[in-house]
Specification:
- By secondary structure, the chain is α+β, with helices and mostly antiparallel strands.
- It is 41% helix and 24% strand.
- It contains ten helices and 13 strands.
- Helix 3 packs parallel to helix 8 and helix 4 crosses helix 5.
- It is elongated, with a radius of gyration of 22 Å.
- It starts with 9 loop residues before the first strand and ends with a strand.
Length: 287
C-alpha cells in the first residue's frame, strides 16, 4: 500500500487555467497525468530511470553529484532505479532519450538544463518527446518577477515557459515548485537545489514497500567467494552485491538487498556459514 503525505504538496496542471492553443493536447496531457497519479497512488511505481544532462559533465568540467541522493531516496521508497543516462545539451538527443525512458520505466527524472541560458534546453526537449506545445505559466512568471524584481529579464521569464500538461508541485519549504510532465520529473542540475527538490518528490511518490539492505564486511578474496555469492542469490531470491575496497578494516563488502527481512536474514546467515568466520569483520542485519 502506498503512503503519501496528505496535503503537504499542492499542485496545479498547466493548461487548466492558462490559454492553450491546443485543447486536445491539454485534455490528453491531463488524462495521461491522471493515469500516472493512479499508478503512484496504487504503489505500482516500482521502476525508475534518470537522464543527466549537461555538456559540462561530458567534458569533465563538473562532477555529477545528484544521482547518489536520488538513488538513496528511491531505494528507501521501494522504487528501483534501473538506468542512468548522461547526454549533452541537445534538444534532439534529450527528446529521444526522454521518449525511450518514459516508455520503459514507471517514472523518469531529468537533471540539468532548466536555467535561463541558451544551452538550457531540457524543457523544449521534454515537450518534443511528449508531443505537446510550450506555454508561459502565468503564476510561475509572477513569482519570477517577484523574486528578481526590476532585474527580471526575458531570460528569467523563459523559465516559466513549460510544456502543456505540466504539473507544478509545491510545498511551503520549497522556494520553487517541482516540474512534472506526465511521468517525467524535471529537476535542476545544481546539487544543492536538486537535493531540496527531493523532499517534494518523496512526498509525491509516497512509500510502497521499501527496500531493505544487509551487509557483511570481510577480509576475503573476492574471487574465492564468487561462487558462494552466486548460489546465495539464486537460492534466496535477494540481490547480492560484492564491493572490493582498498584500505580500512575490510577488503570486500557483501550486500543483500530485498523487500523481505526474513529472506535477507536467511541469505545473510547462509552466506556466513560459507565464509571463514575469522575473515568476517562485522555484520549489519536488515534495516
Amino acid at each position: 500500500m502506498s503512503t503519501r503525505g496528505a496535503g503537504a504538496v499542492s499542485s496545479i496542471v498547466l493548461g487548466e487555467r492558462a490559454a492553450d492553443p491546443s485543447a486536445a493536447a491539454r485534455s490528453g496531457a491531463v488524462a495521461r497525468w491522471a493515469f500516472l497519479g493512479a499508478l503512484l497512488e496504487s504503489g505500482m511505481a516500482r521502476s525508475a530511470a534518470a537522464l543527466v544532462i549537461g555538456n559540462e559533465l561530458l567534458t569533465g568540467k563538473v562532477a555529477e553529484a545528484n544521482i547518489p541522493g536520488l538513488a538513496r531516496m528511491l531505494f528507501s521508497l521501494g522504487v528501483r532505479l534501473e538506468r542512468v543516462v548522461v547526454c549533452r545539451d541537445d534538444v534532439a538527443i534529450i527528446a529521444t532519450e526522454v521518449g525511450a525512458l518514459r516508455r520503459a520505466y514507471d517514472v523518469v527524472f531529468t537533471s540539468g538544463g532548466v536555467g535561463p541560458t541558451h544551452d538550457d534546453v531540457t524543457i523544449p526537449a521534454v515537450a518534443r518527446a511528449l508531443g505537446v506545445s510550450i506555454v508561459r505559466h502565468d503564476e510561475l512568471a509572477r513569482r519570477i518577477r517577484e523574486h528578481f524584481g526590476a532585474g527580471t529579464t526575458e531570460g528569467h521569464l523563459r523559465m516559466a515557459d513549460l510544456p502543456v500538461g505540466t504539473r507544478l508541485l509545491s510545498r511551503a519549504a520549497a522556494e520553487w515548485p517541482v516540474i512534472v510532465v506526465e511521468n517525467v520529473f524535471v529537476l535542476p542540475g545544481i546539487p544543492e537545489i536538486f537535493a531540496r527538490k527531493l523532499d517534494v518528490v518523496r512526498e509525491e511518490l509516497g512509500v510502497d514497500t521499501p527496500f531493505l539492505s544487509a551487509a557483511i564486511f570481510t577480509r576475503c578474496d573476492e574471487g574465492a567467494i564468487a561462487e558462494l555469492l552466486l548460489r546465495i542469490e539464486r537460492e534466496h531470491g535477494v540481490t547480492v552485491g560484492s564491493y572490493p575496497t582498498i584500505g580500512g578494516d575490510h577488503s570486500v563488502k557483501i550486500t543483500f538487498d530485498g523487500i523481505d527481512a526474513g529472506a535477507l536474514d536467511a541469505a545473510l546467515d547462509a552466506c556466513l556459514e560459507g565464509l571463514d568466520r575469522a575473515l568476517v569483520v562485522r555484520v549489519e542485519r536488515p534495516r
